[in-house]
Amino acid sequence: MYHGATIPGFPAHPHRGFETVTVVLKGFVDHSDSHGAAGRYGDGDVQWMTAGAGLQHAEMFPLLDKIKPNPLELFQIWLNLPKTRKFSRPHYKMLWAEDIPVHSNRDKNGKLTEVTVIAGK
To answer: In angstroms, what is the C-alpha Rg of the chain?
Structure first.
């Protein structure tokens, strides 16, 4: 799973008082945290993690192929929790790519627009 002396990613580090929304467009992330949760997600999956009162977690990027490149394309949004939720119980929710709604629209010139909805309707 991990090859070589260096493992790419972010080893265990603390979070408290906010949420992270991690959208993995290409590649994979191995997540583990101080509350015993662990798993792999990627290729369109989204992890919505509420740090709340605090936890340690790690986000590592597995090198699944020893010969070919192991591409990774992701972005992460940080949301500050309101004062009343700063000490809420930490948890996370997975949104799997196949369950995330994508709305498509083609305009009168034939241009396609796709919107992926990860929050709201």
So the answer is: 17
